[in-house]
Amino acid sequence: MSNFPFQRLQVDLANLIERTPAGQRLLSEPDLAKELGVSRATLREAMRSFETQGLIRRRQGSGTFVVGKVQVLDSGLEKLESLETMAKRLGLEVSVSDLSIEAVAASEEIAAALDVPANAPLTRVRRVVRADGRPVAYLVDILPEDILHSSDMPDNFHGSVLDFLLGRGDSLASSRANVSAIGATAEVAKALEIQRGDVLLHFYSQLFDNGGKVVDYSLSYFIPGYFHFHVLRRVGG
After folding, report:
1. CA-to-CA dists, residue 88 to 26, 74, 91, 150, 175, angstroms
2. Per mean pLDDT, which range of 22-26, 65-69, 89-93, 110-114 is the poorest?
3. What is the residue extent of each domain of the chain?
4. How confident is the model at residue 237 (pLDDT cuts 50, 70, 90)?
């Protein structure tokens, strides 16, 4: 019974979101909390579940907006493929924006991940993936400059470093990925038009060639609610 007021708040919010047209801004947090008779902290906690479902989007300095439903990208993780390839296979349309390709020096952390010396020259590729014009993922690839130089990238580069390497004929063998839930940093929150600290699904991965060399270290941030990833496992023994 102790959770009943919170459950009632979630029902009230669900009804409010359902009644509000997509793209319209909700009342400010102080006004909405007052209208619903709860504290701002309680309201914020209740709203977080609707954010993870992709039903609302908080924008720094602008407020909270209702988001129209989009198709979910549902895919297994057994096979490494780009978001663009997944989307095409599922019949979804995605686009890339805020593309940045730049030369950087390896920090100690990145040097360890790529097995290169500290300050080694690298190429970093950053971009935002959008569905129906909305940011849903922020992707960062970091590669040794001898694997990928900024001048190698074609003018019509569409956002997938993996697809570019495969199309070029690079011999890629496997990938090791770690998956966790994290709070959005200021940089990622700005790129995805969300609040700092909002929960994201985070992958950080190493891509290996046939010789076992790390050719790409990638950081991927996904807004929950737009993605369903699953793993097919065989029973042991």
Report:
1. 34, 12, 5, 26, 21
2. 65-69
3. 4-66, 73-230
4. low
CB atoms inside a 10 Å sphere around CB 138: 25
Question: In sequence order, what DSSP letters do the residues of 92-132 get, joined into one string?
Answer: --EEEEEEEEEEEEPPHHHHHHHT--TT-EEEEEEEEEEET
Q: What is the DSSP letter of 183?
A: E
What is the domain class of 73-230 according to CATH?
A: alpha beta
Helix (H, G, I), strand (E, B) or coil at 192: helix
Beta strands 73-76 and 63-66: pairing type?
unpaired
Q: How far apart are CA 54 and CA 57, in angstroms?
A: 7
Chain-centre distance for alpha carbon 111: 23
Domain boundaries 4-66, corresponding CATH code? 1.10.10.10
